[in-house]
Amino acid sequence: MTSPLADRVRPQNLDEIVGQAHILGEGKILRSIIESGNIPNMIFYGPSGTGKTTVANIAAKLSDKRLYKLNATNAGVSDIKDIIRDLDGIFGQNGVLLYLDEIQNFNKKQQQSLLEYTENGQITLIASTTENPYFYIYNAILSRSTVFEFKPLTPDDIEGALRRAALILQAEDFAGQTLEFEPDAITHIAQMSGGDVRRALNALEIAALYSPPDKKGKVLITKEIAEQCTQKRSLSYDKKGDSHYDILSALQKSIRGSDPDAALHYLARLILADDIASICRRLMVISCEDIGLAYPMAVTITKSCVDCALQLGFPEARIPLAHATVLLATAPKSNSTYGAIDAAIRDIENMDTGTIPRQLQNKHYDGEGNEIKGQNYIYPHDYPNHYTYQQYLPDNIKDKKYYIFGENKSETAAKEYWDRIKKG
Fold first, then answer.
1. Phi, psi (5° rounding) for residue 398?
2. Does the chain have fewer CB atoms within 10 Å around its N or its C terminus?
3. How many beta carbons lie within 10 A of that of residue 384, not counting itself?
4. Does the pLDDT value for residue 71 go beyond 70?
5. What does the alpha-carbon distance between residue 318 and residue 21 come to, in Å, rounded to a whole number?
6. pTM above 0.85, yes or no
7. What is the helix, strand, coil percentage profile of the chain, to 5?
8. Residue 220: exposed, middle, or buried by beta-carbon count in 10 A (0-12, 13-18, 19+)?
């Protein structure tokens, strides 16, 4: 049985790898480490199809260590114990290199089972993950490893890999036939792969193997065929993964930065991922955190848009969600209340703020030991403009100022009003 094209074209040396020049280019640190053959424990972090497994294979070959591969989605401690038993045999004389894919799926106990052997050098660990290792990998492993980030491949990178793969297809699968590609066909596949070379190679293979030859035996891959094999551009998105939070973060920061075009771009990504719940929650957060009292109606309008979107569902929900997004991006901004409540919480958590003043307490009886009897609460509505001074904060923090009026039309007007009332 012929192996998949992605396996047949897998690079056998560092020069054949496309992309990752920031760590594998001439003079870069990861390239120097691998070429030395003295491989330390490493963690490869990045999207699927960017070369993590390939680089681990090349590192194992140059280190002269026996390579073991495990995938943490279906492996366990028993699989690690099997490798440990091999350490004392003929295969473990030079130590072993363990490539552990998707390490974020190992729990703490499973990860810790490797520590003793990675510390004494019997096992060299190369772990890969598509998630941020600083969130998903335990510190004991992180502190013993060097982290390298693999970045999504550019369409140009992928196009180079596809052209190399096309030559292999011609030689191995189309001997005696002619395999040709329209100029735009490979470019289209590269652009639609979402930075994943494996996905691109699979699309190329399908396009080549299932396109009928003409009467002369020539197989021509047209752009139309390429479009059928790719259908829809790949999106890097996992509702529980790193890319999920990256897109939500980009959406909020674009709205906070008052850039409606960027905000709509990230909203569109979330819409195409069919993640209506995350969109609605984040827009509500933004209306309170970033717009706040600069435009108090933003919360109400956003809530109405969210309710409308949830009632409609996709595809129509995109319209009220876009309405809320543009409104928030173009609204005046204030984080005055956000900063104020956080400052108040910090004081309560970190200091003795004291007891509630007697006049604010909900009791009307004073014990015999109290020198000053009575509630002594002043009712503001009995005074002009419904205001009169009295102490509301506890004695220990009576002079604290948490809320500072923002420099926007709404809060400036409120400040002018209260400055006038309190001076009178």
1. -65, -20
2. N
3. 8
4. yes
5. 39
6. no
7. 55, 10, 35
8. middle
